[in-house]
Amino acid sequence: MIFVFFLFILLFAIILIFSSKKFSPIPYFPSNKKDLDLILRALNLKKNQIIFDLGAGDGLVIFAAAKKSHQKKLDTKFIAVEINPILLLILNMRRFFHPNKKNIKIIRGDIFKMNYNQLTSKQANQATFYLYISPWYLEKTLSNIKKQIKKFSIVSYMYPIKSLKKKERIVNGLNSIYIY
Ligand SMILES: C[S@@+](CC[C@H](N)C(=O)[O-])C[C@H]1O[C@@H](n2cnc3c(N)ncnc32)[C@H](O)[C@@H]1O
Predict the structure, then answer these.
(1) Are 164 and 154 in contact (CB under 8 A)?
(2) Which domains does the chain have, with CATH numbers?
(3) From 77-81, 119-123, 147-151, the region with the lowest mean pLDDT
(4) Is the pLDDT of residue 4 over 70?
(5) CA-based angle 179:169:161, to the nearest 5?
(6) Ligand 1 pocket test, candidate residues 28, 81, 89, 138, most atoms within 8 A of CB
(7) In percent, how much of the chain has pLDDT > 90?
């Protein structure tokens, strides 16, 4: 009986966290697994590159990319930024068992308040940002990145960034992938 009670409380807490504006300002929804290969290709993994997943969710993209980089013996760095405490727990557990964990950093933070410059400068000369966030936050995120970093590329899943239209390349998977 006590077990059922705690299970109920746990479920309630999880639902609360996932529906709260504070812990989940942009709802959690993973990229479609069927598009994963196309996404990895779009990220164009290289040496001296740092890849950010802004709002990394359960790490579907970042861990697959880190695995590919490990197999190709690249020394690409990966940073997963997440705000939801449950997803952070999952990210940290997955990182612990990952073959390329030395190149993966999990950061608890708000993507709109991050100091990207501090995170990139010493590690790599090219930053790539993977975004799968609500479309109305894309321009805000871009302007935050632009203010801090000179050389970067962006891969946006499902939603285009209007102000970057001229530089846009589209890969059509189950959902479109926009590369800038
Ligand atoms: C649509 S999901 C994408 C998950 C993952 N990138 C993927 O493609 O599978 C958006 C994620 O962003 C996280 N998130 C929302 N607002 C955030 C913020 N301000 N700072 C950091 N992460 C945030 C959510 O918790 C959620 O996991």
Answers:
(1) yes
(2) 29-179 (3.40.50.150)
(3) 119-123
(4) yes
(5) 60
(6) 28
(7) 74
